[in-house]
Amino acid sequence: MNCHFYKYHGAGNDFIIIDNRKGFFDKTNAKLIAFLCHRRFGIGADGLITLEKSAEFDFHMSYFNSDGYEASMCGNGGRCIVAFANKLGIISGEANFIAADGPHQAFLSPNDNVRLQMLDVENVSSLADGYFLNTGVPHLVCFVNDLKMVDVDIEGRQLRFDARFQPEGTNVNFVKQKDNQLTVYTYERGVESETLACGTGITASALSAAYKTGKHEGNFRITAKGGKLDVSFKREGDRFTDIWLTGPACLVFEGNINLDEINFNGFE
After folding, report:
1. For residue range 188-200, what is the model confidence (pLDDT) as tens digits?
2. Which of 226, 225, 267, 233 is nearest to 248 (CA)?
3. Cβ proximity of 165 and 151 under 8 Å
4. Do 109 and 157 lie in a common domain?
5. 142 catalytically annotated
6. Phi-psi domain of 158 (left: phi exceeds 0; alpha: psi -120 through 50; beta: other)
7. Which of 131, 133, 144, 214 has the fewest other C-beta atoms within 10 Å?
8. Same domain, yes or no, for 75 and 154?
């Protein structure tokens, strides 16, 4: 079976996107998804997204980490699928779509940026080594003085599997703050490595910075290794509402792959 795919990235966080409105792609095949995301055996990506039909929304977004398993939300992926839906003509400049974590609204701008509304965050937990919250998926946010001293893969992996966050584990963000400017490095659960950007992690980092400094509304400008993004919000006590993640969503290339001819030899 021939599968036409698209490759997008949001600040270096890259995704394979498939138009699955006809339901031909088997989303339950974790090995296939992991193969397609593998950077040597497959196409290569941090995750895979399928665009599905929805009776009540413009479309349904299903997101899978590069390990092949579904996750509830991806902020950068959410912006990319909005740009993709716009390219297909499903939407025109504005989207209302549904993902595993709930409904989202988004707007496109002429400079390839997408403004995506994230779900409300009900609380932020203050821990000895950081802040823990769920912005669609769980995140631990650790503020540091010098990001150059952090080995994201080693330290991130240790915290990702820390007993406090089991059995699901957590994503881990290391953050350097200077006023309203944040620099964020993220270890992503499911990718099991550092990624160039993480939308839900950048959102979690901004909200944690607001919680830490007592900021009740406004925005943060965030620098990730793959680009720059913005997070705006309102806060009432421990609850954050009107959360918007803004950043690039860029088409890289598109291509075809015959799913029936994939050779899994050597792939584990």
Report:
1. 999 999 999 999 9
2. 226
3. no
4. no
5. no
6. alpha
7. 214
8. no
- Considering the domain boundaries, does residue 266 fall inside one? no
Examine the domain organization and report whether 227 and 148 are in the same domain: yes
Contacts of 41 (CB under 8 A, 6+ apart): 35, 266, 267
Catalytic residue flag (residue 198) = yes
CATH number at residue 33: 3.10.310.10
pLDDT of amino acid 266:
87
The total number of structural domains that make up the chain: 2
Q: Which of 3, 37, 74, 80 is catalytic?
A: 74
Q: Within this chain, do residues 135 and 104 fall inside the same structural domain, yes or no?
A: no
Domain that holds residue 106: 2-116+250-261
Residues 6+ apart with CB under 8 A from 86: 92, 93, 95, 108
Whether residue 7 lies inside any domain: the answer is yes
Q: Which of 3, 37, 80, 198 is catalytic?
A: 198
Query: pLDDT below 50 — which residues of the chain?
Result: none
- pTM of the predicted structure, to 2 decimals: 0.96
Q: Which residues pair with 19 in a beta bridge?
A: 51
How far apart CA 5 and CA 3 sit, in angstroms, is 6
Closest alpha carbon to 137 in 41, 70, 39: 70
Pair 240, 254 in one domain = no
H or E stretch covering 156 = helix 152-160
Q: Does a structural domain hold residue 37?
A: yes
Residues 6+ away with beta carbon under 8 Å from 111: none
- Whether 116 and 232 have beta carbons less than 8 Å apart is answered as no
Distance CA 126, CA 128 (A): 7
**Distance of alpha carbon 40 from the chain centroid:** 22
- Residue 185 falls inside a structural domain: yes
